[in-house]
């Protein structure tokens, strides 16, 4: 098994929303209140207006920053089996190269098919403590909108089971953490 790294906010990530540190007029010195300021990207270039909005005077959440969130993960403790952690090994697009790689499925809990290992381990999306922790982490990342991956009732992808019963709990948790919610409809055509 290759070494996996667990990333968390305490690892020294910037407290700015992702990408904002790249903007010289904002990075490192923003007081995190709503900001509207003119900036010039370079001499002779068009003037651009940078507008950041957030949830309040302390600016702990930016509603311009969205996090995509999926509730299709499962583990034996909560769901009786692993879901999505044990997906099929994705083959290389070139058949000649693909032939030299293993076939089959990932084998949790050690092999979850990711370069990063979740701090909570291969969790279940049905675990209320996990849901609460995720909402806290999203808020700590300064993201203000949770974009929930959604399948119509009774449908799921090949690696999971229907999750429509989890939607109310996710929306309630998002609300408790002052997060807005949006829906991303998953492709069910295949």
UniProtKB/TrEMBL annotation:
Pfam families: Glyco_hydro_99 (PF16317). GO terms for molecular function: alpha-mannosidase activity. One of its GO terms (cellular component) is Golgi membrane. It is a single-pass type II membrane protein. Gene3D superfamilies: Glycosidases (3.20.20.80). Keywords: Golgi apparatus, Hydrolase, Membrane, Signal-anchor, Transmembrane, Transmembrane helix. It is found in: Golgi apparatus membrane. Belongs to the glycosyl hydrolase 99 family. This is Glycoprotein endo-alpha-1,2-mannosidase-like protein. The lineage of its organism: Eukaryota, Metazoa, Chordata, Craniata, Vertebrata.
């Amino acid at each position: 098994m290759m070494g996996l790294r667990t990333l968390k906010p305490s690892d020294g990530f910037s407290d700015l929303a992702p990408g904002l540190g790249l903007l010289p007029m904002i990075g490192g010195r923003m007081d995190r209140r709503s900001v509207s300021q003119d900036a010039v990207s370079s001499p002779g270039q068009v003037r651009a207006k940078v507008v950041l909005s957030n949830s309040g005077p302390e600016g702990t959440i930016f509603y311009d920053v969205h996090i995509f969130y999926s509730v299709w993960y499962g583990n034996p403790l909560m769901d009786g089996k692993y879901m999505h952690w044990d997906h099929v090994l994705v083959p290389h697009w070139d058949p000649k190269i693909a032939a030299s790689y293993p076939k089959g499925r990932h084998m949790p809990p050690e092999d979850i098919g990711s370069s990063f290992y979740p701090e909570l381990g291969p969790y279940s999306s049905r675990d209320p403590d996990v849901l609460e922790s995720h909402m806290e982490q999203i808020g700590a990342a300064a993201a203000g909108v949770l974009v929930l991956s959604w399948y119509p009732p009774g449908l799921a992808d090949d690696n999971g089971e229907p999750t429509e019963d989890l939607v109310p709990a996710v929306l309630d948790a998002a609300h408790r953490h002052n997060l807005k919610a949006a829906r991303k409809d998953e492709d069910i055509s295949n």
